[in-house]
Design brief:
Chain lengths: 916, 304
């Protein structure tokens, strides 16, 4: 059908199926890729566009309805004054992290600014409330929109850092411009001409044997299918896993599917045919088997084993023991205990997995949204049966990852299809597919007991955690190993025993999710600490300060830090807010004037080791100087929105002693950047940052040696000339006379850093991490006593980052982590088969994240670059326990199962009343 | 341009300009009616459109709210944003509050009031306020029109009284039942874009002495179709419209509802919450009390 309408002021006349979605027309026909697709159901708002002045979801508009309409997208916004103000404000405020929701936020904000010159904070929340963001925690977006609506002279101008002062500067992210103008290329935003579309046939059963039927007939019945691949067609190993010794996951299941959504075949061919295929007609016969629903069922002697060599379906167990808990509990005057339960939690990044692959001779190139390009490369080489060097992985912009995009998901499918077809192949997961196929946060069942003496010193803690690791290993071993080390929280506990198990079930595979099991453990530990302080009648903050770990005190693994332990500094930084909020809560604490709400406050804390647990995890950074005076930073740390590109550049600029604008950035690309490891474990600032610092210092030394200059000489790059200035005398270095190396550089520094750790012994004693970061948060809540609804009034967060390389990005991490902590505490629960979309699976919206006061604490750690510590995961850990403790404070109810839905809170209140 | 990435679809689609044209098409085939698309597209899940589509969005005269002799008339293409923006009497406050709770602004700009009824979700935000207004659904076919009360139109979960060849053309609110003031409260697990755990709408009219002369109370998401609480309504008549009156709403008034257990909440919680929501909806109808869970109370921080 012919449709005539306008997009961004230009007439469009297309012949298209009238029921096609507007998003498909914009993206696939008009090549306007700034409008994103996150769910195809109106739940996330990422596809927001303006139709005849009204904001709407492009995924819900049939193009047949557009005849004569005027459509404005992010691409058209840039030409307007409001669009330019918004883009500038979003950049300066750090309102874009991964950037996948940013175009929709800006388009929605533009409509608001058009209708209301001076909107209130509430107006902004309401107008943008239909767009989900998983990174920022929304506050900086609200700030940016308010700023854009203000008079120009009121807005803070962006500042360029002074030379040698990039570290510590509130620098707008270097990769931000493309995110605010809609040109950033995410996994689904580029498809080579003539590419085949890949779709995946998945198991509808949690556990089933299957037999694939007549593929030739199916192919014959559907013109356009070019190839159907099953396990038998994989040229290399049909096996992968992020931790090699535990690799157990087939790319395509062979005879048995072990979770709902497990892939059994891929179909590739002409996009217009393959996209409409009804995959339920795929020829396969299923023989459902009894699924193992829970760790308890899986550990039963009679239970079938999901994997050979794993008796009891136990993947791995972790253990840390120090002192003698029997003695510790004997010394205790007060003991509290509890059982805590947490569910599967979905990462819910707004970008479903997407990318393309192409074969170039005997090499394969994969462009996809990944957090771990070098790991993907090694895994794909094994799957394709080629040398590692034959695989190139180029991460696209990543629209949120949070741990799940470390594991392989789409990459093998597009690589296999492109390899077989010898033409490009692409895939875009649907939201449901993304949720079914990707890893989740481990569900946990934790029993813990803590005792303290009469003065409030913790004497002993005992902890048992069972983690449902789902069908395959993924990062289950990491969770099992990390948890016993961290379950004590940032405290000195002389007698300690913590044991964890990762148990297989036929649930979704549980993997890495911001915190690797530590957020679950912190819920148990901090809840029990709250209850102990309550039993003692001791102030919650002072109780934690009494027990906070200090320099020279051994951790539960016996590690002793001479300096850099920052938890006391965090708690002390919170003290004024704690006293203020305590007084306010006591004032609001009683039912008065018919009010049914009660105010409460709570504390949560965290510590978190940066980098892999007792395992090597090196990063390598290369910096080159060209004959024409360009300084090129090869930086393979994948920036998934958290800001590593910016942070590493800031470190390098200062190490070199040049302005940050002089750096040319390359990466990440496995052909062009050395391995900087995966973006996980809060390691990029500490590990890649240290490699970057050393590479920068090394290159500076080389440059200075060229001019025999002293260490204080100033390096200047201008018009292709490098000069050194010392004592007022400038010398030009003739770069053209120097020999060029195979990378094209006349001078090059490449440095590798691997944080020093030691293995843990059989009592879990050793040095698992070189650096820990610390934090503490206060939650202020109002609880509706009759309905059980929890309203967050305010959060105050103090995080010790050692040295804030970029305070703007630090605040962004704090606010974004808190938003995910709010979700964990109050609303998120993934139930396979039931919550496989973003209206049944709830993540916080604009209205669910309150004002957040960030206090940046800097207790330098000599093992971090410029004293810096990691932050990305720490920020999520204290939030849920702080909220649960605030609910306890407000109501007397102890929540032991998250999410604390209104029904659960109300039930806990009733239980508290009964026990009163 | 690469139209080849769009699905090949051999499919019927019609977008008539007049109601007559639409009805004659409907009489000839098995069409799926498309309006705002906010339920239609999500309902496809990962499948392409294959059914014949009758797109009603170009039909003249079906959008907007007007008042004539005996009725307020809400055209079938009136979207929730139109409801929010309309200048309506206080009896429509509940409907306007509910309109702000339908999905997001993006959804409110496309989704229609009539579509909310036709989708027949037990958690449809629009249904309790329309019931509290004694709204009538006008259903039209080539054979003519018929009027159905909301609870005669929505028959069950995803089930309506629409017969083949019929579409909803209008929603009528009698002047006689648009007296007084109404209020709506919704309970969900997050602030925006949330499916109700339970909700209630109430409308109260009083005489010069402040005594209740009319009461209409409905509860949604606690039964397959939202329900009026007739017993409570009857008991309220003649009572003074004061906070003390709220105590008249008891657990017994909601005992006849049949909520389900699901991932959002267990049935028992829904019942308890429903009684409380009814009290709060009632309190929202009293001049001196604001409901605790009002839809979008004005911000105290209007400046910065």
């Amino acid at each position: 059908m012919k449709i005539e309408f306008q997009v961004n002021g230009k007439a469009v006349n297309v012949d298209i199926a009238p029921t096609a979605r507007l998003t498909a027309l914009l993206r696939d026909v008009l090549d306007l890729k700034g409008t994103k697709v996150g769910c195809d159901a109106g739940d996330c708002g990422a596809c927001s566009v303006i139709v005849d002045g009204a904001i709407c979801c492009g995924c819900l508009v049939a193009v047949g309805q557009l005849d004569g309409a005027k459509v404005t997208t992010i691409e058209g916004l840039g030409n307007t004054a409001a669009g330019a103000r918004l883009a500038d404000a979003f950049l300066r405020h750090g309102a874009a992290q991964c950037g996948i929701c940013t175009p929709a936020m800006m388009v929605s904000a533009a409509v608001l600014l058009d209708q209301s010159a001076r909107p209130s904070r509430r107006d902004v929340e309401g107008a943008l409330g239909g767009v989900l963001c998983r990174c920022t925690g929304y506050r900086k977006i609200v700030d940016a929109v308010l700023d854009a609506s203000a008079d120009d002279e009121n807005s803070a101008p962006a500042l360029t850092p002074q030379r040698r002062a990039a570290v510590g500067h509130r620098l707008a992210r270097l990769d931000g411009l493309a995110k605010v103008n809609g040109t950033e290329v995410f996994g689904a935003d580029y498809v080579p001409d003539g590419a085949a579309l890949v779709r995946v046939v998945r198991s509808p059963h949690a556990h089933a044997r299957f037999t694939i039927g007549d593929l030739r007939a199916f192919k014959g019945d559907h013109s356009g299918i070019e190839v159907i691949l099953t396990a038998a067609d994989i040229p290399g190993h049909n096996l992968h896993g992020v931790i090699a010794p535990f690799a157990d996951q087939p790319v395509l299941a062979e005879t048995v599917a072990r979770f709902v959504g497990e892939a059994i075949a891929i179909i590739a061919g002409a996009p217009n045919c393959v996209t409409g295929l009804d995959l339920s007609a795929f020829p396969v016969t299923w023989e459902p088997l009894e699924p193992l629903q829970s760790p308890a069922a899986a550990c039963d002697d009679q239970a079938p084993r999901l994997h050979a060599g794993r008796p009891g379906n136990i993947l791995v167990e972790g253990h840390v023991e120090r002192g003698d808990i029997t003695r510790g509990f004997a010394e205790a005057a007060h003991i509290v205990e509890g059982k805590f339960t947490t569910p599967y939690v979905e990462h819910a990044y707004i970008e479903p997995e997407a990318g393309y692959a192409r074969r170039i001779g005997e090499r394969i190139e994969v462009h996809a949204c990944t957090q771990a390009p070098h790991m993907d490369r090694e895994a794909l080489a094994l799957i394709l049966g080629v040398e590692t060097e034959a695989v190139r992985v180029v991460p696209s912009a990543c629209g949120g990852g949070f741990g799940s995009k470390i594991d392989l998901t789409l990459e093998p499918f597009i690589a296999l299809a492109a390899w077989h077809l010898d033409r490009p192949a692409y895939i875009v997961f649907t939201r449901g597919e993304s949720m079914r196929a990707s890893t989740k946060r481990h569900p946990s069942e934790i029993c813990a007991r803590v005792g303290c003496d009469a003065s409030g010193r913790v004497t002993a803690m005992d902890f048992d955690g069972v983690f449902n690791t789902g069908a395959y290993a993924s990062w289950g071993p990491t969770v099992a190993n990390r948890v016993p080390i961290h379950a004590c929280g940032p405290y000195f506990i002389p007698h300690y025993r913590a044991h964890s198990q990762a148990v297989h079930t036929n649930g979704p595979t549980a993997g890495a999710f911001r915190g690797f099991g530590v957020p679950q453990a912190a819920i148990a530990q901090e809840s029990l600490f709250h209850d102990l302080a309550e039993t003692l009648g001791m102030d919650q903050l002072e109780f934690r300060l009494t027990n906070a770990l200090d320099n020279q005190q051994p951790t539960v693994t016996g590690q002793v830090f001479a300096e850099g332990v920052g938890i006391k500094a965090c708690l002390e930084a919170l003290r004024p807010a704690w006293r203020r909020e305590s007084a306010a809560a006591r004032e609001h604490g009683h039912v008065a004037d018919g009010s049914t709400t009660r105010r409460g406050i709570g504390i949560g804390t965290c510590w978190y080791g940066c980098g892999n647990t007792s395992l090597s995890n090196p990063s390598t950074i290369r910096i080159g100087l060209t004959a024409t005076g360009q300084i090129v930073l090869h930086q393979g740390a994948t920036d998934i929105g958290q800001g590593s590109t910016t942070v590493i550049s800031q470190i390098v600029a200062d190490a070199l002693g040049i302005g940050i604008e002089a750096l040319d950035l390359v990466g990440s690309d496995t052909d062009l950047t050395p391995d900087a490891g995966k973006t996980s474990a809060s390691r990029q600032t500490v590990v890649s940052g240290t490699a970057a610092l050393r590479a920068g210092e090394a290159l500076r030394g080389m440059i200075l040696r060229q001019g025999n200059a002293g260490s204080d000489a100033e390096i200047t790059l201008a018009n292709g000339t490098l000069s050194l200035c010392e004592d007022g005398i400038a010398r030009v270095i003739e770069l053209a006379n120097l020999e060029t190396n195979p990378h094209g550089y006349v001078l090059e520094a490449e440095e590798t850093y691997d944080p020093p750790t030691t293995p843990l012994d059989d009592r879990g004693q050793g040095q698992p991490y070189s650096v820990y970061g610390y934090g503490a948060q206060i939650a202020v809540v109002s609880v509706d006593m009759l309905l059980g609804t929890v309203k967050l009034e305010r959060l105050i967060a103090a995080h010790d980052v050692g040295r804030a390389i970029n305070p703007l990005l630090v605040e962004g991490q704090i606010q974004g982590g808190i938003a995910q902590g709010i979700g964990l505490a109050l609303m998120e629960e993934y139930i396979p088969g039931k919550t496989e979309n973003l209206h049944d699976y709830l993540i916080p919206t604009f209205g669910d994240v309150p004002e957040i006061e960030s206090i940046i604490v800097e207790v330098p750690d000599p093992r971090g670059p410029r004293g810096a510590k990691g932050l990305g995961e720490h920020v999520l850990i204290p939030t849920a326990p702080a909220i649960l403790n605030a609910i306890r404070d407000a109501t007397g109810a102890r929540i032991r199962q998250v999410p604390a839905t209104p029904a659960r809170v109300r039930a806990a209140i009733e239980e508290a009343w009964e026990n009163d | 341009m690469d139209p080849t990435r769009l699905p090949d679809i051999d499919q019927s689609y019609a977008r008539p300009r007049s109601i007559g044209e639409a009805l004659s098409l409907l009489a000839t085939g098995d069409w799926t009616v498309l309006a705002g698309g906010t339920d239609f597209f999500p309902g496809l899940r990962d499948r392409p459109v294959t059914a014949p589509i009758l797109d009603v969005t170009a039909i003249d005269g079906l959008r907007g709210i007007r008042c004539d002799g005996a009725y307020w008339r809400i055209g079938a293409l009136t979207c929730w944003s139109d409801i929010i923006a309309a200048d309506l009497p206080p009896a429509f406050q509940a409907l306007q509050q509910a309109a702000r709770e339908v999905g997001s602004v993006q959804i409110q700009n496309r989704a229609t009031v009539a579509g909310n009824l036709c989708n027949a979700s037990p958690a449809a935000d629009g249904v309790p306020p329309l019931m509290a207004l004694d709204a009538k659904v006008v259903v039209t076919s080539q054979a003519g029109s018929r009027q159905l009360a909301v609870d005669a139109f929505v028959l069950g979960n995803r089930k309506t009284a629409l017969a083949p060849g019929e579409i909803v053309t209008e929603i009528l609110v009698p002047k006689s039942t648009s007296r007084g003031i109404s209020s709506f409260v919704k309970l969900g697990a997050r602030r925006y874009m949330v499916i109700s755990i339970a909700m209630a709408a109430a409308r109260i009219a009083t005489d010069a002495q402040g005594c209740i002369t009319a009461a209409a109370i409905s509860v949604g998401a606690c039964s397959a179709v939202a329900r009026r609480l007739r017993g409570l309504e009857d008991r309220l008549i003649g009572q003074p419209a004061t906070p003390a009156t709220l105590a008249l709403a008891t657990a017994g008034d909601v005992a006849g509802l049949s909520p389900i257990d699901d991932s959002r909440a267990p049935a028992a919680y829904r019942l308890g919450a429903a009684a409380e929501l009814v009290r709060r909806a009632l309190s929202g109808c009293l001049p001196d009390l604001t409901p605790v869970l009002s839809a979008d109370t004005p911000s105290e921080e209007s400046g910065r």
